[in-house]
Amino acid sequence: MIAVQGLVFDYPGTRALDEVSFSLEAKTIITRVGSGTKVVFTGDPYQIDNPYVDSSSNGFNYVVSRFRSESIAAHIEFQKGERSELAELAANIL
Fold this sequence. Notes:
3 helices; 13% strand; 94 residues
């Protein structure tokens, strides 16, 4: 878990976050952004490295599902990722 409690992003800009596992991490970050800030979450919704969450309860999917109907949010899902053959194999069998 990342420690950003009390941190406020209070200037316009973009924050990119990759592989957010816990919904608490996502909430902690999103609830502290300032006006004009854009937050971009990236990740593979099925690549789970945390034993306490799964593809339906990880932070990435939680944020997507909760913000899906909000007009200030957008969601893009790629049909195919660009990975090496080894990375793709590992993601599928491990």
